[in-house]
Amino acid sequence: MALQWALALHGVITVLVLVSFLCGHWPIFEGTFVERIHHFITAGAYHYFLRFVEIVFGPRVRNCFLRIEYYSCDRPNPILQLVYLGILGGTYYIIARSSFRYIPGVYVNEMNKYASILAVSVGVILFLLTSFSDPGTVNSKNVSQYISAYPYDNILYVEKECPTCKIPKPARSKHCGICDRCIARFDHHCGWMNTCIGEKNTRYFMAFLLWHFLICLYGAIILVLILAGQLKERKIIFILTVYYGIEKSFYSLFPHVVQWLLDAHNTQIVLTVFLIVISLLLAGFFGYHAQLCFTNTTTNEAFKWQEYLSWRRKVNEAQAIIRAVDGEAKAPTGKCRNPFRRSPFQSDLAVKNNVYDRGIFRNALEILVPLSERRSFIHPKAC
Ligand SMILES: [Zn+2]
Ligand SMILES: [Zn+2]
């Protein structure tokens, strides 16, 4: 029983650390312990590590680490792309080596061997499309079309020039310091893809997330079916109930079945848990981005709106307090008060006014067929 609790605790901690590391900076986790863990993993722990290196080895070794950090995080490089290919290839290799011998089995037919190769190949193609296709680079030739396609909302975006590219900055674009170029409808710079996610490659990025979620789920289901097939083939339930006299109920058999699976098929168990954790993370990541796509908001804009609304609320609160102080100074001292009247200290609501949101269907279409690939972009209507 202690082993099961230890495994459950290990699983919870693994999920918490992975979710905090990958998603802790999302607006929904603001102010929570997930954000604090994310900050510790991504900045705090490294800061303490650098201080430790400086004290023990001196400032020259510390500067060496800073140069490695600069190359790894602030310059374009294929490190994470290679890590992705390593994880994908490595996981597939371990699954093939350890589990293909059970195919065909009771619940899994031969076709799944070939289907898995096809599924992984499609995943790699989506990865290459996202990584190496143009994310929507803004240059002197297309900047005027981008400015026509994305009007300034005068809230998040106002007319200005990119100080690096020396060209006007279309609304929704951002200069990426790593790629060193302006990207239309900038979402974020993705280290895993070694490129920006922008107007033209968001569709491939979304397909990549959805496909990898499905691959992980598919892998986990096949592994569970392989284990179920082994239980049946080896008559484990029969042996446990008839030879060992264990009561034939779920609660009595469950710990013994888990024990047998951990002894006989620990590789498949570890792989299944790994695939389920990754598929949950991918589902969360895909869901978050799908919700942004359906409301025609980019990740960059989600942060910008958060900052804008927080600032707007503070301004409103300050104005409400000033009005209340003025009002109290002038208010008549009558006893009858309207109970439905708003408290003078209540501020006006700060609301998101996204001018780019044109309804779910047109927003989704804008991802699938980017504005810059439409006829109206190349031949804009004369005003
Ligand atoms: Zn620029
Ligand atoms: Zn970039």
UniProtKB/TrEMBL annotation:
PROSITE patterns for this protein: DHHC (PS50216)
Gene source species: Platanthera zijinensis
Coarse class of the protein's main subcellular location: membrane
Protein name, UniProt field: S-acyltransferase
Catalytic activity: L-cysteinyl-[protein] + hexadecanoyl-CoA = S-hexadecanoyl-L-cysteinyl-[protein] + CoA
EC number(s) recorded for this UniProt protein: 2.3.1.225
Similarity comment: family membership: Belongs to the DHHC palmitoyltransferase family.
One of the record's GO cellular component terms: membrane
GO MF, one example: protein-cysteine S-palmitoyltransferase activity
Domain of life: Eukaryota
TM spans (from-to): 6-28, 78-95, 115-133, 209-229, 236-254, 269-288
Keyword Transmembrane helix: yes
Example of a GO biological process term: protein targeting to membrane
Compartmental location: Membrane
Keyword Zinc applies: no
This protein's domain notes: The DHHC domain is required for palmitoyltransferase activity.
Membrane topology note: Multi-pass membrane protein
Keywords: Acyltransferase, Membrane, Transferase, Transmembrane, Transmembrane helix
Enzyme class: transferase
Pfam families: DHHC
InterPro entries: Palmitoyltrfase_DHHC, PFA4/ZDH16/20/ERF2-like
